[in-house]
Amino acid sequence: MKVSVNVILASLLVVAFSSNVIADEVKPEDAIKYRKSVMTVMNWQFKPLGAMVKGDRPFDKDVFIKNAAYLEVLSKMPLEGFIAGSDKGETKAKPEIWAEMEKFKGGMEKLQAETAKLAQVSKTGDMNQIKAQFGETGKTCKACHDNFKSK
Ligand code: ASC
After folding, report:
1. How many domains does the structure of the chain reveal?
2. Cα 125 to ligand 1 centroid, rounded to whole Å
3. CA-to-CA separations, 104 to 41, 43, 108, 139, 144, in angstroms, rounded
4. Cβ neighbours of residue 83 under 8 Å, at least 6 residues apart?
5. Is 46 in the pocket of ligand 1 (CB under 6 A)?
6. Which of 11, 13, 98, 137 could form a disulfide with 114 if both were Cys (CB 3.0 to 4.6 A apart)?
7. How close is the Cα of 126 to the center of ligand 1, in Å?
8. Which of 46, 70, 150, when mutated, tests ligand 1's pocket best, judged by the most ligand atoms within 8 Å of its CB?
9. Which range of residues forms the domain containing residue 59?
10. Mean pLDDT of the chain
11. Is 27 helix (H, G, I), strand (E, B) or coil?
C-alpha cells in the first residue's frame, strides 16, 4: 500500500514537472513580442494601400497585389500569440480577449476572410472594387481594436 502511494506521488510529481515544462515553453513576454511584431509588419504592408486608396499616393497595381498577398498570410499569424497568461506585461490587449476567446477568434477569422478577399480583388486593378474591399478589411482591424485593445 505504502509503495503504491509513493508511486502515485512520484507520478504526480513527474506530471506536474512536465506540464510546467510545457507551460514554460513559450514565455508570455515572448508571445507579446511576437504578436506585436506581426502587427507592426501588417501595419507596414497596410499603410501604403490606404494611401493609394485615398489618393495620397499613386496607385501601383504591382505593389498593391504584393502587399495584399503578404497581408493575407500575415492575417493568419497574430492569433497564436494570444497564449494563456499573456494578458499581463507590455501589452494593450484587454482581458476580454481571454474571457471571450471565441468572439476574439471570430474577429480574427473575419480579418483573415476580408484580407483574402482584398488579395483577390487587388488583382482586378479596379479601384472601385479595391476601395470597397479595403474599407471592409479596415473595418475588421478596427472592430477588434475597439473591442479588445486598450487605448
Ligand atoms: C492599420 C493599423 C490599424 C488599422 C486600422 C484600420 O494599419 O495600425 O489599427 O490599420 O487603422 O482601420
Report:
1. 1
2. 22
3. 21, 20, 6, 15, 7
4. 26, 28, 31
5. yes
6. 137
7. 22
8. 46
9. 5-148
10. 91
11. coil
Answer yes or no: are the C-beta atoms of 78 and 108 closer than 8 Å.
yes
Cα separation values, 26 from 70, 121, 148, Å: 26, 37, 22
CA of 118 to the centre of ligand 1 (A): 15
Instruction: Specify the pTM.
Output: 0.84
pLDDT digits (tens, 9 = 90+) for 78-121: 999 999 999 999 999 999 999 999 999 999 999 999 999 999 99
CATH number at 59 reads: 1.20.120.10
Q: Are 74 and 38 in contact (CB under 8 A)?
A: yes
89 vs 87: CA distance, rounded Å:
7
Q: Report which residue type is found at 121.
A: V
Name the one residue in this structure whose C-alpha cell is 506540464: 19
DSSP 106-126: HHHHHHHHHHHHHHHHHTT--
